[in-house]
C-alpha cells in the first residue's frame, strides 16, 4: 500500500502536514482535503456532546453523521462508534473514514474482482463485512451475501453456541458477538495493526511487548512475500461462522455434518462441501491449506490450557505432510522444510489474531511463547517420521506401565493437566495443593483410566465452563465425561450455567452441580459415566452429538429450577424472613459446604469480620515479648494474622480453622498477597494433634468463643447433646492451655454480656419491629423478652437488647446465621472468674486496660435505625459490644 490509510488520517487529523496528500484525497474520496477536514471536524464535534444527553447525541448522529458518509449506513456507524477501537474523537474519525474508503473500493469492484479484492488486506475484509452490521440494505451487503450466504450466520447470536469468553464492546441494537469478534477486533485491530505496523492499533494496553510485536510484523511480511497472507485472510473469514446461524441455516448445515458442536471441524466440512473458497480463485493447494487452518485453529490454545492432547493434531500433521511438497514446488522454495515453516507461520498468525481478539490483554508475551512452543513442536513432528510422532506421544504418556515410577509419573502428569484446566483460578490465588490432594486420592485403576482416555480426548470449553467448580467436582465431572471414550467432549452447555457474571443464580447452580457430584463415586463415574437415575436436583447428561463427539449438559429438575429462581430473589430481599428461608432451603438441599458457608454472602461476611482493624490490634499489646509461635484459632478473614505478621516479623504465625471454606479463602489470599503466615484445617478441641504440648507462646481467640458456645453440641452424658453450653468453651480453652508454654498467654476478644437492666428500643426503620418479632421467634440462645409499648417501641432488658441490636446491625442478609449465635456469653468479671477456675492453679488473669468497650461500628450502624432508653426513658448509650480478656500460664519456678 503506497499510502497507508492510517498514515493519511493521522496527517489529516493534525499529526503532520496534509497538504501533500490533496491529490490522493481527491482521487480516493472525490473530496478536497479541506472538505474532508471539515467533515472530520463535524465528526469530532459529535464526541463533545455530554455523555448524559442521549437525545442530543442521537440527533447529532442522525443529522451530522448521516450526511458525512455515502457508504457507511447509520446503524453500522453506531456499531463502530461503540467499539473499543474508538477511544477518542480522532480515532473514531480515522476508523470511520478508512472503513468508508474500504467499502467504496469494494463497491466499485466488478463482480469478478470483488472476491479477489476482499482478500487484499484486513481493511478490505472489514470493508466487506461492516455492512453486515446494518439492517439497512446496501449493494455491497447484498453482493457479499450473494457470494457467501453462510456469512449471514455471523449476524445471528446463538446463546447455545457462542461462549461468554468473547468480549462484548459497546451497546448495539442487537448483539452480534461473532461479527464483532471477527470484524472489530480480529481484523480491524489485530490483523490490521500487524499489516500497517502500528502497535497502538493492535492493542490498547501493553500486554504484548514491542519486541514481540515487531517479530509478528516481520513474520507477516514473510507471508506477504509468498502470497500466503491471502490464505490466512480467507481462513479468518470462515473460522467461527458455524457457531452462529439461524435455525434454518443450522438445519441445512446438519445435512452436511450432523453434529455442529465441534465448530472448527464443522466449519471446514461445510466450507469444503459448499465450495465457499472457489470465488477467491486460490490455487488448489492454497484452498486445502485454508481448510486445514480452519479445521485446526484454536487447538494450540486448547493444548496450552490442558484441553487438547497432541493426538488432536493428527489431521493437521497429515495435511502438512501432503501440502508441504506441493507448496514448496508452487512457490519455488529452496526446500520442503521451508514450506513446513511457512505453513506453521500461517497457523501461528491465525491463532494469534483470533486469540488476541477474544478480549483485550489476553495475548501476552508469555502466552505467545506457549503458542510458539506448541507450533514449533508440531512443525518438528510434521517434518519427521510417524515413528518420531509416536515417540513424542510416548513421552507425553510418561514412563512404561511396568516401571516402578509409573504411578508417580501418572499423578504428576494428571496434576499438571488439572492445573492448566484451572489456570485462571490458580492465578487468582487458589492453592495448587487442592488439585494435588484430589489427584493423590485417586485409586491406581481410576488414575490409569483417566490418564489413558485424557491423552486421546479433546476437551472443548472445559476451562471456561468448569473452573468455578471445586477441583474435586471438576475431576469427577471429567471422569464421568471420559467414560464415553469419545475423542471430543464439549462443555459449552455448562458455560452459561456456571458463569458467575452472566446470571445471579450461577453461584447456586455451581452448588447444585457440586452437590450432585459430591454424592457420586469417581471410580463408578470413569467406568459407567453419569447416573441416569433422576435426582431431586436434576442431573448431568452426556448427549452424543455424533460418532466422535459428546455434549455435557446440566438438566435441572422442576425443584431445582424453582430453587434457582427463588434463591437469588430472596437474596436481594431486605426482610429477614426471606433470608431465614433462603438458608433453610440451602440446608435442605445440601448446598452449603459446612456450617460457616453463606454461599453468596460469604465474601461480604469475611469483609465485615476484617473491619475494625485498629480495634483488633489492641489484642497484640498482650502477646508475650519475643514470641516464637503464635496461633490464632478461627482466623476468619485473616486480618489478625496480617497484624501478627506485621508486628512480629521473626515469629511463626499460624491460623487453624475447622471451616473448609474459610481455610480455602485464606490460602487463596496468602498466595495472591505473598503472606508468610500459614493456615491449617483442623479441630481446635484437639490442638495437640497440630502443635506440640507447651509449644505456643500465644493463642488468640478473636470473636470465636461465642460461636463455640452457640454452635458446638456438648455431650451432656444423658444420651443428648446440647448447644449453648459453657462446657464447650471450657473444653476449647483447656485444649489451648495444654499447648501453651509456661509464660505464654491466651488472648480473647469477644462479645460480652451487659448488666441485667431494663431498656426501651424505639425503632426509626419501618422494618425494625418486624425484625425484632422475628428475632424473638427464632433466636436459639434463650427466650428473648419483649413487651410492646406502642407500634415502634419495645421494652426489654439490656442482655436481650444487646443480642438483638448486634444482630440487627448485620442486616437481613445475615439474620439466619446471626440468630443462631448468642454474642454475649457472660458478664466480664464472671467470665474472668469462670476461665481461671476452668484452667486451674497454673492460670492467672492478666489486667487489661478498658477490658470491655463499645465498638464504633455498632454506633454508626444503628444510629439511623433505633434510639435506646433506660427504664426512665432517658437516652442511654449502647451496651459494650466487646471485651478483651487475657490469661497467662504461670512460669515454672
TrEMBL record:
Entry keyword set: Methyltransferase, Transferase
Domain of life, per lineage: Bacteria
InterPro entries linked: Methyltransf_11, SAM-dependent_MTases_sf
Keyword Acyltransferase carried by entry: no
Domain Methyltransferase type positions: 631-748
GO BP term (any one): methylation
One GO molecular-function entry: S-adenosylmethionine-dependent methyltransferase activity
Name of the protein described by the UniProt record: Methyltransferase domain-containing protein
Species name: Microvenator marinus
